[in-house]
Predict the 3D structure of the following.
Amino acid sequence: MPLAVAPGLLLLLLASGTRGALVVSVPTSPVRAQPGSDLLLGCHFSVGGAVDMDALVVQWKLGGRPVAEFGEVQSYFRTGASLSLEGLRVGNASLLLPRVGGTDAGLYTCSIIHSPSRESRQVELRVEAPPRVSVSGTVVRAGEHSTVTCSVNSFYPESVNVTWLRDKQVVGGPETPLAQPGPDGLYSATSLLQLVPSISHADANYSCRVQHITLGAPIQEPFRLSVLSQPRLTLLQPLVTLEGQVTLQCLVSGYHPPDITVQWLRDGDPLVTMESSPTKETDGSFAFRSSYILNHPESNAQANFACRVQHSALSTPLESTATWTVPTCTKTCLRVIGLILLVLLLLLATWIVYQCCNISISQIHVRECFPEGSVTMLLCEAEGRLRDTDSLTWRSLRLGKELGSGQPGELSALMPKPEQHHVVTWRHRLGLGRQRLTSVLTIQSPRDKESFSCTFRLGARDMQQTQITIPGVAAVPQAPVLGEISRLQVLAPGEPVTLSCQISRFYPKELSVTWHRRGRGEPAFRSLDNLHTHKIDTPDPIDRKSYSVTSQLRFTPMVPEDEGAEYRCYVEHETLKTAEEKSTGPLELRGCPLLDGDMAIF
């Protein structure tokens, strides 16, 4: 058996002091050895001269247990252990341990006595072996229970940890499988991964990760599954042309991996076939189409055509056979074909006549344009063999009146004035005597839903009609904006005066406006409800997208009642958390004539 010498043995130290100085050296710890190997555990010494064998004593201990001794006699307490007498004469007290095992591991002490000196050194022995990892059973069948085996061999000591990973995610373990000792003293263990694979698992990255005390980092053995899925074979309906050419087809699907061989045979003889590239299905399987063309099939001859498939998932080739009788096209057959062609020509001619003479009217299309969709455009078209007197007429179903048809060829500005409509009509020639008549109705976008109709008029007769209802414009609520109250610059007693409060840009329409008065010295405003002395005029709001209104208060100021009096316009609206108000401030009356156009803004 070969002798394993522990690494790192130091050269024999040379004497560097007085004669008789004792120096002992051992290898750097730990010293590693595999089970079953022979190990020479080093220990060297120097006495500064020749070794006096009568004055030399050597002792080896494992922990506190003696292993070997040399002195007046040689004693060995471990089977097979030995010291070399020739080595001792030259300062080599190394201990030979044949077939080391787990019981040999531990901390050894080498003690040297060379009277009168005594020295000892310690060295640690580890008996261990790193594992070797391999994976088997990676060829599996889709949808069937399968087992993948991870084999961990030739390791020591016996404890080992195994984890299974798929795309870096744990799918099995960690576990400590049962280790079995071998004749060489090393251990082996196996770990099993149970799974029912699908075709998609073929794209996953698997690994068996092993951890052991001898490893600085785990061993990770990568592998991928070879997932087998048997192909399905389907014979497709043959394709036959009028010239008598026949194309036989077969479809192979649901198989994996993609490598496959498809062969056509005629009465057992191989044929040259046309093949397409495999296509990958959504489930990860593959599909393949193979064809064989019979350019000149023999009349009335029967032949057996077979599509044969070979694939790694099949133990024997897959084959499907069909008997094809090559037909002969007789006179009757030709008459039938001619009749079919004649019918097709008649149908084509009928379709052309129908397209030329038929008049169709489209559905009404809606478009909004200009800022905030304030204008709506309705488009209606008629197509067919039209005359110049034919027209498209618009009608408002809510108002119950026609809105006009526009003049053919007219294409003027489409933007209508408020509360008005506008119709534009033009023609486009299509060929084969056909025309397209297009009519556009532009209206101010209604606040509420409204219905319109477009009627195709053939001369003076209404032929076809289409209708549409458009929803009202959904406006965004807006808070009212109050302007300052306006009045005449100079107020004279006994002369009528008008106070105006401008309220604008609000939505919805509902609005509350009240006027209040507070006389000089009065603590609070009071609502004006005396219509004999004060007249309030608040008309309905106008506009369509947002509303505006001017509220006016008319009265004749008198002295002393109105001297220093203050008037306030008070507005409430659903968009306001609190009411808005504008005030005139205290009024000043003067006894001078009024001048036209003198106004004051407060």
